[in-house]
Amino acid sequence: MILVAFETSCDDTGVAILEEERVLSNNLASQVHVHGKFGGVVPELAARKHLEAIPVLLDKSLEEAGCSINDIDCFAATVGPGLVGSLLVGLSFAKGLAIATKKRFVGVNHLLGHLHAVFLAFPDIKYPFVVLLVSGGHSEILIMESWEKFFRVGKTRDDAAGESFDKVARMLNLGYPGGPALELLASAGNPRIPFPRPLSEKDNLDFSFSGLKTAVLYHLRQNPKEKKEDIAASFQAAIIESLLEKTFSAADKFNISTVVIVGGVASNALLRSEAHAYARKRNTKVYFPPKQYCTDNAAMIGRAAFEMLNRNLFSDLSENAVPYLGLNESC
Ligand code: KG4
Ligand code: ZN
Fold this sequence. Notes:
- The chain has helices at residues 32-35, 43-65, 84-101, 110-121, 161-171, 178-186, 210-222, 228-253, 269-282, 298-310, and strands at 2-7, 12-19, 22-30, 74-80, 104-109, 129-134, 139-144, 150-155, 258-262, 285-287.
- The chain is α/β, with parallel strands linked by helices.
- A hairpin with a 2-residue loop joins β2 (12-19) and β3.
- The longest helix is centred in the last third of the chain and has 26 residues, at 228-253.
C-alpha cells in the first residue's frame, strides 16, 4: 500500500509518500520568509502559500518516490488542530485527489501524527510508555497503554512550552520562529539566573509557564544591561527542568520504564541531552523522533495514517477541518 500524506495545519506545507511504514519521500516548504516580517503567522497568507506550494511539492514527492498518482492507494491529510484556512487547503486537496482517482481518504489528527513520528525511527517501541508532547500549542504528558488506550496525566495550565519559547524569544527581539533562535542564543550563555520552576511539587504533573515568562519580562526590565545570552540560557534551563522533572515523575508514578518525547520543542538539543541524562540515572529508556520529524512534517501524518489504515479506519469525504481538535482519551 502506497499513501500520500499532506500536512498544512500551520505555516509549513508538507507532502510525504509512504509505502506501508517506509518513507519514500518527504518534502517541506517553509513559509518563514513570508511571516518573519510580521513576527508571527498571518493565517490568510499561510493558506494562500499552502495553495501555491502543495501541487509543486506533490509532483516533487511523486518523482522522488518513483511513482505516479495512479500508484497511490490512499490520500491522508491533517484535519486538526490548526488554522482553519490552512487545514482546508491540505484536506480539500487530499479529498479531491481521492475522488478523482477513486481511492480512499483518511483524515489524521495532527497530535496523533506528532506522537507516531517516533515510530518512523523506532518501530519496535513497546507499550506502555510515557509521552511528553511539546509543540507550539500543546504541552501534555500521556500514558500510552496501546494504540487505542491512553490517558492524560498532566497538561499545561496556561501557555504551551513552544509558545513560551516563542514569547520569550520575542521579548529578546529574536524574531520568528522563536524556539530555534532562542536555542541558538542560549548556547552562548550561562544559565546562572535562578528563574522559577513553577508547580514544582513532586506529585503535581501539570505545567505552568506563564509565571516563568513574566519572571523573564521583569528581569529584563530591571536589568536592561543583562547579557541576553544568559537570559536565554537560564529560561531554557528552567523550562527544560520543568518538562523533564514532571515527565520522569510520571514514569516513576506509573512504574513505566520507557519515555517518548515528541513535538516541535523535542528538536531542542538541550532537552534531548538532558532527557538522556535523566534516563540514564533512572534506568529508563528515552526516545525522540529524528529532529526533522519533531517539527511539523507530512511523514508523521503518513505514519499515523498507516496505523489507521491497518485498522480499517478510513474517513468519510464529509470529514471537515477541526481547528481545536484534541487527543481523545480512551480510558
Ligand atoms: O510541533 P510544531 O512544529 O508545531 C505545532 O504543532 O505547534 O512546534 C512548533 C513549536 C514552536 O513554538 C517552536 O518555537 C518550537 O516548537 N520549537 C522549539 C525548537 N524548534 C521548534 N522550541 C525550542 N527549541 C527548538 N529548537
Ligand atoms: Zn505540530
